[in-house]
Specification:
The chain is of the alpha/beta class. The chain folds into two domains: about 5-195, Rossmann fold; about 205-310, Roll (Methionyl-tRNA Fmet Formyltransferase, Chain A, domain 2), CATH 3.10.25. It is about 25% helix and about 30% strand. The protein contains seven helices and 15 strands. The chain has helices at about 15-25, 45-55, 70-75, 120-125, 160-185, 215-225, 300-310, and strands spanning about 5-10, 25-30, 35, 40-45, 60, 80-85, 100-105, 130-135, 145-155, 230-240, 245-260, 270-275, 275-280, 285-295, 300. The protein has a seven-stranded mixed sheet. Strand 10 (about 230-240) and strand 11 (about 245-260) form a beta hairpin. The longest helix has 25 residues, at about 160-185. The relative contact order is 0.10.
């Protein structure tokens, strides 16, 4: 049994913490401070904190990881290993405080998709395969030696949210096996090929704006990759009312589910077949399956068509 310090914050890390606590001694959980959330801006605890409290594990929520007080708290744990899942970058001064150093679960096949959003970008870019990696932390982001790795195919309609759930469980199982190997001295780490590294930066809201000149497949992949957050959106074009026959931006439509199909149409222009909406793209048509006008509930593509009452609909390309 290993003595562990666990560091993590979001839902992705919760199954890992729960399983580690069942097989090893987790002496301390380190997570982000509580943050204001919702309209009322009430302080909300991170998911990892809630699970740690349920398990009876002490929790630390430092504003900084570089203070002498935090260094002393970690040193006092006499940890065999630090396990880090979806957390901040650790100062290199902490690594020597655990006998076996620190390992991290990353939601990609490193060195591909280093950064904050590997699961979203691997889907948004249309990759057919991804996986999870257990690697040793060093001073650079997602840079350390790979201890274990497991691949999985990505479904053609699988969203980042759905893949997120699968990889969370895969990462948990791979980590448990890896800890057994580390404890027994069987683990063999290998350096990453840094020449093959690709970025996975934090996603901005503007990354979700649909470019209808792209192919239907590329847009479909973006919609999947940014589902559930930040989501993809497009802007309706309306007559400008200036008398010159121009157009002006109208309502914003959030696009949640789509399907690429063969066909041709002008980018951004909606055609209707069998009571269903299809949008022209740079290559192929995009069937809108589930959408949402800004400030309104989600509806099906068929409900969108019914609401048009025969009016034309097109989006800014």
């Amino acid at each position: 049994m290993l003595n562990l310090v666990f560091m993590g914050t979001p839902t992705f890390a919760v199954p890992v913490l729960e399983s580690l606590a069942a097989r090893h001694n987790v002496s301390l959980v380190v997570t982000q401070p509580d943050k204001p959330k919702g309209r009322g801006q009430q302080l909300a605890a991170p998911p990892v904190k809630l699970k740690a409290e349920e398990l009876g594990i002490p929790v630390a929520q430092p504003a900084s990881l570089r203070t002498p007080e935090f260094h002393d708290l970690i040193a006092a744990q006499n940890a065999d290993l630090f396990v880090v899942v979806a957390f901040r970058i650790l100062p290199a001064t902490l690594f020597p405080l655990a006998r076996l150093g620190a390992v991290n679960i990353h939601g990609s096949l490193l060195p591909k998709y280093r950064g904050a959003a590997p699961i979203q970008w691997v889907v948004a870019n249309g990759d057919k395969e991804t996986g999870v990696t257990i690697f040793r932390l060093d001073a650079e982001v997602d840079h350390g030696e790979v201890v274990a790795q497991k691949a999985t195919p990505i479904g053609p309609d699988e969203t980042a949210g759905e893949l997120f759930e699968r990889l969370s469980l895969m990462g948990r199982d791979l980590l448990l096996a890896t800890l057994d190997d580390l404890e027994a001295g069987r683990a063999v780490a290998r350096p990453q090929n840094h020449d093959l590294a690709t970025p996975a930066p934090k996603i901005r809201k503007e990354d979700g704006r649909i470019d209808w000149t792209l192919s239907a497949q590329a847009i479909h992949d973006r919609v999947r990759g940014f589902n559930p957050a930040p989501g993809c959106h497009t802007v309706e074009l309306t007559e400008s009312g200036s008398g010159g026959g121009g157009t002006a931006p109208g309502r914003t439509l959030r696009v949640h589910r789509t399907r690429p199909v063969p066909g041709a149409g002008q980018p951004g222009v909606v055609s209707i077949e069998g009571g269903e909406p299809f949008v022209g793209t740079g290559e192929g048509l995009l069937h809108l399956l589930e959408i949402q006008w800004e400030g309104k509930p989600r509806i099906s593509g068929r409900d969108l068509v019914n609401g048009l009452r025969g009016a034309e609909l097109r989006f800014a390309p």
